[in-house]
TrEMBL record:
Gene: LOC111292301
Biased composition (Basic and acidic residues): 310-325, 456-481
InterPro entries referenced in this protein's UniProt entry, alphabetically: AAA+_ATPase, AAA_N_dom, At3g28540-like_C, ATPase_AAA_core, ATPase_AAA_CS, Mitochondrial_chaperone_BCS1, P-loop_NTPase
Reactions catalysed, as given in the entry: ATP + H2O = ADP + phosphate + H(+)
Domain of life: Eukaryota
Entry protein name: AAA-ATPase At1g43910-like
Keywords (A to Z) from UniProt: ATP-binding, Hydrolase, Magnesium, Nucleotide-binding
Cofactor: Mg(2+)
Region (Disordered): 310-330, 456-489
Coiled-coil stretches: none
GO molecular function: ATP binding; ATP hydrolysis activity
One GO-annotated biological process of the protein: response to stress
Domain AAA+ ATPase residue range list: 238-387
Membership in a protein family: Belongs to the AAA ATPase family. BCS1 subfamily.
Amino acid sequence: MASLLKEQPSMSTLLAAYASLSAMAMLIRTILNEMIPKPVQKYIKSKLSDLISNYLSSNFTFIIEERWQAVYNETFRAIEVYLPTRIGPSTDKLLLGSNDHNNPTAPPKRNIPSDCKIIDEFEGITLEWTLHVRESDKYYIPDKKCYHLTCKKRVREMVEQRYFPHIVKMAQTILSKREKLNIYTYNQDRCRWESAVFKHPARFETLAMEPELKQFIMEDLDSFAARKDFFKNVGRAWKRGYLLFGPPGTGKSSLVAAIANYMSYNVYDLQFQSVRNDADLRRILISTTNRSILLIEDIDCSTKISQDHAKVKDDREKEGEDGKLGRTSPVDSGATLSGLLNFIDGLWSSCGNERIIIFTTNHKEKLDPALLRPGRMDVHIPMGYCTPAGFRKLATTYLGIKDDKLFGSIDDLIKNIEVTPAEVAQQLMVRSDDPKAALQCFTEFLNMKKVKVGEDVIQKEEPKDENEKDDGKQSRKHDESESGSIYLT
């Protein structure tokens, strides 16, 4: 035993050997760093890491990022819809909140916070989900989000081929049965859409419109929703465009809300004037989801900016040449009409399916002709002044009556006076607790409006001859006939 102890190396010998090996390792490392290029080093390290993980780990991880190349990842969106339904007792934390201002006492919605683990079961296989969020250093660049799905390597193929399609189908089912809709507005500073609960009471049953017009719109919407294969076969994007035109107060916004409720589509309300440029517009539009409505109100104001854009740019360049403060910035140059039309029926129109695009305007005659060409806006719907049928619908809605002895005189007045459905609704709401008094007050309102219209006519210059009178009558007849027409392009 004593001889064996004597043969063992001393502590100083061991330290000296360790120091020699460390120096040798550092020397070899320095030589390799100098001789082997960095890309080759990274390649070797990655291969070694993969080799070690293959032998030591039996798990595999799928990574699903929020964006896929130039557009939003539809798989990511399906997971966002599906995963909150899989929250269970094993979930360690939750994100709760509510954006329903109409019902503040309702239970808050569930969502998945960063680094929260969700366990899901599929065909006897246990799957683990985790949301990862990488915060951006710049406020105008959105945070990067991605989901990690961890499973056993042996079931990787089955998860990819059967589990992910299962998630997409479940997400579609959930969206088709959703009871609450959202309305989105684009936050330019944070570069993302922000939502609020959309609970507008407008329905086709309550709209003060001609029954034939309402029936036409509903049938057109039903036909659009059921013709996915048709659009594919004819080589067109699965979209439908509506142009609503008419004076203010004729129910354009109410019709948009009725369409959203009828189709169960979310609404993306885009303020076109605030878009920086065409690239920004394209990014905003392709970030909208399927089964949604893109709404651009007062498009005549937006297109005016587009038409004047080239002139403003030339003026700025001329000011720069003259030595004045003429600066052109691509950030505030504004989006153009061509950029919008490219999304409607150009090459970028294929980015998304089952979408409805609605433009509203008070002055159709001010629109650029390019917007009115066939294929741009499929249906042109005039929103005119209130008609006797529209009045009766409003009387039923606000007063709860379907007939009265005053209806005949009111019908005669409405046929000869331009009164909007908004004006009628406002008058009926004042005395809605007493239908008789409300109808009497409304009749007085129409008579006063008729007197005022007569006074305005007298103040106008009389036509010089009978020919001008006839021309004026023909023009008015033409306007009246056009206001009741539906244009299909």
